Amino acid sequence: MSGKANKDFGKVAVLFGGASAEREVSLMSGGAVLAALQRAGVDAHAFDPAERDLHILKDEGFERAFIVLHGRGGEDGTVQGALELMGIPYTGSGVMASALSMDKWRTKMVWLAAGLPTPRYAILDEHSDWDAVAAELGLPIFVKPVHEGSSMGATKVTEAGQLKAAWELAARYDTLVIAEEFVAGAELTAPFLGERVLPLVRIVAPDGNYDYQHKYFTDDTRYDCPSGLPAALERELQALVMKSAKVLGCRGWGRADLILTDDGRPYLLEMNTAPGMTGHSLVPMSARVAGLEFDALCLEILAEARLG
Question: For this protein, what reaction is catalysed (predicted)?
């Protein structure tokens, strides 16, 4: 897009920071997006909803919002709903899809209802029979809060005796906690942009531990993009990812995480409707392989901003 066309976006608020457990990552993501838009000639301004009331967006004449808020209060439909009421077009998924995708439990129920593959699970509470959960799902088991991202409060449990402590940790972040069976295989992620799925990224973390620290603050994790998968298989997985986004009602951009077993069976893990845009983030990495540099990526995402 030309500089003049970029001015046609009007006054743009880049929403980042926020009050969720993922504030630190959001600040990094938002800073990168803000700088990219400004380099491209967009009249873009930083806006942190933790520090300023959202209604100021209307008062100050903002015409679009680029949402780079991660987690609750930004990725769960609440900010999207506020922007709808103010009539300000915004990037990413709408109210329903954002809320649904933020909820790992209900995402799984929708995927299963649509016949899409996802690991088996159980909802945990203080009355759970830990031995029965371990027997049902097998070991290891991932325990995580239903409404958090970036591996916040997540634990990989290798013994039934560890389940209660894992539930207690996750419960600090959320009243709903999910246990998910461990599926061995290649860890993959697939960003989508509009109607196309970008190249898959294979994630190779130390000891298979792709936690919060390894996601954002170390260089120990290896990312392979291109993924090295056969072209036909990659196309099949991209089609699966697009379908997984469509059944949730997602739009604009996002990223699905999945596991591919050694015998070629895919399992969808979760959907991210406002993925990271940091130096370690996977959407920009995949976009570069598709020939889309960071600034152009941000402009494409902004061009998809809409209401409803």
Answer: 2 D-alanine + ATP = D-alanyl-D-alanine + ADP + phosphate + H(+)
